[in-house]
Fold this protein.
Amino acid sequence: MALVIDLKPGEKILIGDAVITNDSHRSRLHISGDSAILREKDVMKEEDADTPCKKAYFLIQCMYLARNPSTYYDTYFETIRDIQHAAPKLSFMFLSINEKIIQGTYYKAMKEAKELIALEKDLVAHALAR
């Protein structure tokens, strides 16, 4: 079954190692295969990974796009150890994310890590409001 993606004018998408930029009209792509696919809105640049949870997301993204995802494991697990030490309440989320990483379902792990970023933002806002 093919993945169907509608692209807005000028929107970018990563497919494997290639960045594809849509022209000035809406496009619909039907994509089959096992290549990593990321819409522009889901891509995090390294310089934007400016919080611990964003760094975890970025590392999962790297795993998803890498030919050898395990090269990012050590840095990722170090990062989440630090996060869990600082915010133990987030540990339950990492159980699910780590399970997906171990299963090799990195895109699903990325989706859960996005939720983690939102939680982190709320925690920081709450701490600053005190």
Observations:
- The longest strand covers residues 3-7.
- The chain has a mean pLDDT of 92.
- The first helix runs from residue 52 to 65.
- The chain has four helices and five strands.
